[in-house]
Amino acid sequence: METVRIGQSVSRDRMLSFVEQYWGFDRFRPLQEEAIRAVLSHQDSVVVLPTGGGKSLCYQVPPVLAERTDVVVSPLISLMKDQVDGLQACGYPAVALHTGMTSAERDEAGRGILAGKYRLVFVSPERILTPGFMNIIQQVDVRAFAIDEAHCISHWGHDFRPEYRRLATLKERFPSASVHAYTATATERVRGDIAEQLDLNDPEMLVGDFDRSNLVYRVIPRVDVHGQVADVIRRHEREGVIVYCLSRKDTESMAQALREAGIVAEPYHAGLDTEQRRRTQDAFAEESLDVVAATVAFGMGIDRSNVRCVVHATMPKSVEHYQQETGRAGRDGLEAECVLLYSAADVMRWESLVRRSTEESADPEELLKAAMHLLEQMRLFCTRVQCRHRALAEYFGQTYLTDNCAACDVCLDEVEGVEDATVTAQKIISCVARINRGSDFGFGVGHAVDVVTGANTEQIRRHSHDGLSTYGLLSDMPRKTVTNLVYQLIDLGLLERSADDRPVLGLNDSSWEVMRGNRQVKLFKPKAKPVAKTRAAIESWEGVDRSLFEHLRGVRLELARERGAPAFVIFSDATLRDMARERPTTLEVFRRVHGVGDAKLSRFGKRFVSEIKHYCDKDEGGR
Ligand code: ADP
């Protein structure tokens, strides 16, 4: 078969010449070449690469090399549009068919496909199996299908979409075509499920390295959510930041608090009207808006590659979610920061949410068990003082060889212990023991904190708790800090908290061990000292003229606005930094900048070169 020959015989140089021509990249990222060869030789495959790992290139290269039309199944219109915009800007013939188009537009696209005008056709899982679309792709004899975000097919993934299940019939309908699945979700269970559900034929499993070495992970005890988030964002002035919140209401109060702190921010959640959601998403994409406080609804559709920081104001409900959401930071490969503000209160909140949501399902017990397991793994990730990169790699079944990642709070030695933690724990535990004495019901976290910090509340007066010897023992600590310490004690199993509607605190055997001085306790608090820049962050800016970079960002924003396209479609941050490092003043030198291909050279070259020239002249003049 001719197609088999193509896959095996195409030289690496020939592949790279296409990559260089369209995208201006001079080498492959890990596993891209293998994944491309699998498509060229029609060997079914499952490609698992972390977000930002470069999955798209794996299905974009083969059809231009083989001069044919391949089909990409993609779950969201916004994703398809961004991809097609990006490809068109590179001079790559691609088209999408979706419900956002008029039927005349769709007809025209259909005619273009039949005429062999496009190398890639993007389509939703609902549309691909319609008779109209089937008819078209049968006529052009499509030989390879790419299934993007393939974990959507699995219950065990974190984003199950029933319509993906129907893709199982692709193999039946196109027996001679190969099917290639791409995902960033790496657990073995999901991987196996994808292969099975898609009915793949002995698929090649290409599983990349999951570690995102350009990301710095920090998990910080949450004591003052709005203040802490504002502090993190201030480290990222004029950079893209996503703040993930648990509920719709939380996103709105977060955006409001940030605005009050002088930070321009917008909320985003599924309850806002479509128009407002679109406006926020577009503004974030074109970079006229930098900070979005969002629920997980702000997800797959965002393709801004230069998000420099992802904050979790509350803990997500699984490590998979965490990996996916933090994965939106630094997709351009440049350094980015991920901060999770943790409190054991999050675990309790999730437990009750998960219970409620599984109650209505067909198999509540099974689902609840799976969800609780995922939640517990996430909690352990937050509470163990262990290298975060290592913990993530190991969670996804990979080994992590570096001893000190130099890119997480633990390895950067930022985790600060509370001085005299055991004594502090004894004060809190004995306070709980005292207030419980003589009470039939017990008291919740809030009241215990009030008593130990010496607050003056109606409830304290009513129960005469201001007369207890433990009243005000921690009055020198902020209330929010003490609240967080109480949750840490619950997390460590040193205090009990009942699981009913009105949870109350109680003691257990471990609490008594602490009280008797037989057990030492470690507690953590947010570090007061400013966070240092990591080596990667310093290196990636080396030689870059920052003010030229900012100027070029302005030019990019202008061009993005003119075109109504996301900024990254013009050039990535990595490319702009390279320009601001090399300062090319001729088109020839400009073409050598990382990320400049033929189409972008002819489309944007003159404009950028003239801006750089002008800037350099002014710079010289100013010296
Ligand atoms: P994924 O889909 O795996 O999250 P993408 O396909 O969106 O990742 O790629 C992430 C970024 O990396 C994009 O900006 C893309 O242009 C860039 N990229 C992909 N392959 C390469 C490469 N070989 N060299 C340099 N940059 C690349």
Number of domains: 4
User: Which hetero ligands occur in this complex?
Assistant: adenosine-5'-diphosphate
Q: How is the biggest beta sheet arranged?
A: 7 strands, parallel
Radius of gyration: 27 Å
Walk me through the structure.
With 623 residues, the protein is of the alpha/beta class. It has four domains: 2-207, Rossmann fold; 215-406, P-loop containing nucleotide triphosphate hydrolases (Rossmann fold); 421-526, Arc Repressor Mutant, subunit A, CATH 1.10.10; 541-621, DNA polymerase, domain 1. The chain has a seven-stranded parallel β-sheet, sandwiched between helices. A six-stranded parallel β-sheet has the order 8-13-12-9-11-10, sandwiched between helices. The radius of gyration is 27 Å and the shape is globular. The chain starts with a helix and ends with a helix. 46% of the residues are buried. Adenosine-5'-diphosphate is lined by residues 25, 27-29, 32, 49, 51-57, 305, 331-332, 572.
